[in-house]
Backbone:
């Protein structure tokens, strides 16, 4: 059987170009992976996120290289093959859209870090401490020791309140005194909190006279603290000691 020399040379040329594409793709994939991981490391992304995104970028480059090799060998049939892959990809995307949405949202949460493990957040009507962030869900522990599993896609469509984002938070207490007694100056109330543990000096506490009813004057006292759970009882104790005739309770 005679050998078709032209066909042999054609496939030899295709193999040559395919090998060049394979070598270039491997080198480029490694370079892009290293560059991506360096950029994420400089941005202080978590180690698992850095590795994951580096691998994803590398796989994307390798996939493009594979398609180029396939195009070299198939030529006219490449369009049909690519169309078949597209149809399969669309079907898979529609069937797994919720999983993919949560997965991509998880990557966004880990990279952008709108909150971190240990932060207290409020989302979807739940309030709790972030215990774990995975690529699909985030685990919260509520104050009554319940675990809430929040799909990461929720953070892309709902408002999230990070209650511990800043070093200090505002706390409030009520001071209720007999209006017939000597009027209380705001500076006296501020002075009572000046030496209370965990109460921030700056900004200073604020005092508002909210109501005078039934012979009682109600003052709303606001202050800033980095440890609300520790500062609130200390502030209550300081006000009770300074104004024993009054009633003091948390806001």
Residues:
């Amino acid at each position: 059987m005679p050998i078709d020399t032209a066909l042999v040379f054609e496939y030899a040329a295709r193999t040559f170009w395919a090998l060049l594409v394979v070598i270039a793709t491997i080198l480029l994939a490694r370079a892009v992976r290293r560059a991506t991981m360096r950029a994420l490391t400089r941005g202080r992304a978590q180690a698992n996120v850095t590795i994951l995104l580096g691998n994803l970028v590398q796989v994307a480059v390798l996939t493009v290289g594979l398609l180029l090799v396939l195009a070299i060998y198939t030529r006219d049939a490449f369009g049909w093959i690519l169309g078949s892959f597209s149809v399969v990809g669309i079907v898979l995307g529609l069937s797994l859209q919720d999983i993919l949405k949560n997965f991509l949202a998880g990557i966004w949460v880990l990279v952008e870090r709108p909150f971190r493990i240990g932060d207290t957040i409020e989302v979807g009507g739940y309030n709790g401490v972030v215990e774990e962030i995975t690529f699909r869900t985030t685990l919260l522990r509520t104050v009554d020791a319940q675990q809430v599993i929040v799909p990461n896609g929720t953070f892309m469509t709902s408002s999230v309140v990070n209650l511990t984002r800043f070093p200090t938070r505002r706390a409030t207490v009520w001071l209720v005194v007999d209006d017939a007694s000597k009027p209380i100056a705001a500076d006296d109330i501020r002075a009572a909190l000046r030496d209370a543990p965990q109460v921030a000096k700056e900004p200073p506490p604020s005092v508002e006279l909210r109501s005078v009813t039934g012979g009682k004057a109600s003052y709303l006292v606001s202050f800033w603290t980095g440890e609300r759970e520790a500062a609130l009882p200390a502030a209550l104790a300081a006000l009770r000691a300074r104004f024993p005739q009054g009633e003091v309770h948390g806001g």
